[in-house]
Amino acid sequence: VFNFSAGPATLPEAVLQQAAAEMLDWNGSGQSVMEMSHRGKEYMAIHAQAEADLRELMGIPANYKVLFLQGGATLQFSMIPMNLMRGKSGADYVNTGEWAKKAIKEAKPFGQVNVVASAEDANFSYAPAQSGWKLDPNAAYVHYTANETIGGVEFHWVPETGDVPLVCDMSSNILSKSVDVSKYGLIYAGAQKNIGPAGLTIVIVRDDLIGQAQPKPITMLDYKTHADNDSMYNTPPTYSIYIAGLVFQLLKKQGGLVAIEKKNIEKANLLYDFLDNSQFFKNPVKREDRSRMNIPFTLKDESFDEAFLKGAKERNMIQLKGHRSVGGMRASIYNAMPVEGVQALVAYMKEFEAKNG
Ligand code: PLP
């Protein structure tokens, strides 16, 4: 089955097989990873290796902490302003769609939120060019959403914010391409799309931004707590971290993020090339800003939707229904989606168009 879910999403088969083989007995320890004490040497080794592999994959500089947290990217919408506003007058946000809007809403209780650019004028179908952003040089940070999972809009460039820290929601495109972490103050992502199972949230944050919060957040919502305790202040989501670690090792074996990016470009082009030549299917996003991870598309009219989904299911392609807020279809093709899955989808779409177009 090819699973096009936006998240929780398909995982690499090799990872699931290894996890299944190790389910009852990890590395001769006689325990499942799920049963291990997080303070024991077995789990500590898994945890440390996962962090080391992520650091290597993304080239994370030594002056950044990697935090393995819970609460989803959604909790970060609040933790970021809580920790980073630091008594400053406010923060700048770029409004690119559903996820950016949620981040903006949650920041408001903590200070002045300036929406410095918005794509709402064209139904969030593009990434606003930086030349139009009205940045405040005294802002605590600039926040943007690298990939809008619902709208299918992705930044293929990194904003320049000078001395103001750049904060990025990378939930749906982290590890899909190489990034220069040093350009960011903070990167965050829920794991359940490109990394692993739900329950783990990754935060990569520059040292100087930790422990500066005014007023001091409650213990569990203070980055300093987790940074000082290697993400072990309380019980971490151990099994999710273990699976994420297996994914990191696989990505390293596959040649790292440069090789992964190449494959992702190839997969996305297959689908977009078809969409651009179709009289029946359409993608609404501006060409330069199209997501390589989440590709929304509509059919000639809505009356075809049900038959399309039914036929897809019969051909072992599932979870293609678009997000409830936008309708239509969405194909999420994260790292773990093989090129064969995209080929099968395009072949089916061609067939559907020939029959119904
Ligand atoms: N940000 C983006 C871009 C997302 O796609 C999602 C989830 O789909 C979230 C934030 C929210 O993540 P979570 O469900 O982990 O809180």
Automatic annotation (TrEMBL):
Binding site for L-glutamate: 39
Pathway per the UniProt entry: Amino-acid biosynthesis; L-serine biosynthesis; L-serine from 3-phospho-D-glycerate: step 2/3; Cofactor biosynthesis; pyridoxine 5'-phosphate biosynthesis; pyridoxine 5'-phosphate from D-erythrose 4-phosphate: step 3/5
Broad class of enzyme this protein falls into: transferase
EC nos: 2.6.1.52
Cofactor, free-text remark: Binds 1 pyridoxal phosphate per subunit.
GO cellular component: cytoplasm
Keyword entries, A-Z: Amino-acid biosynthesis, Aminotransferase, Cytoplasm, Pyridoxal phosphate, Pyridoxine biosynthesis, Serine biosynthesis, Transferase
Cofactor(s) listed in the protein's UniProt record: pyridoxal 5'-phosphate
GO molecular-function terms, A-Z: O-phospho-L-serine:2-oxoglutarate aminotransferase activity; pyridoxal phosphate binding
Compartments where found: Cytoplasm
CDD domains per record: PSAT_like
Chief localization: cytoplasm
Domain of life of the native organism: Bacteria
Chain positions recorded as pyridoxal 5'-phosphate binding sites: 73-74, 99, 149, 169, 192, 234-235
Chain positions with N6-(pyridoxal phosphate)lysine modification: 193
Example GO BP: L-serine biosynthetic process
Aminotransferase class V domain span: 1-345
Function summary: Catalyzes the reversible conversion of 3-phosphohydroxypyruvate to phosphoserine and of 3-hydroxy-2-oxo-4-phosphonooxybutanoate to phosphohydroxythreonine.
PANTHER family referenced in this protein's UniProt entry, alphabetically: PHOSPHOSERINE AMINOTRANSFERASE
Subunit structure: Homodimer.
Record-stated family: Belongs to the class-V pyridoxal-phosphate-dependent aminotransferase family. SerC subfamily.
Record-given protein name: Phosphoserine aminotransferase
Protein species of origin: Denitratisoma oestradiolicum
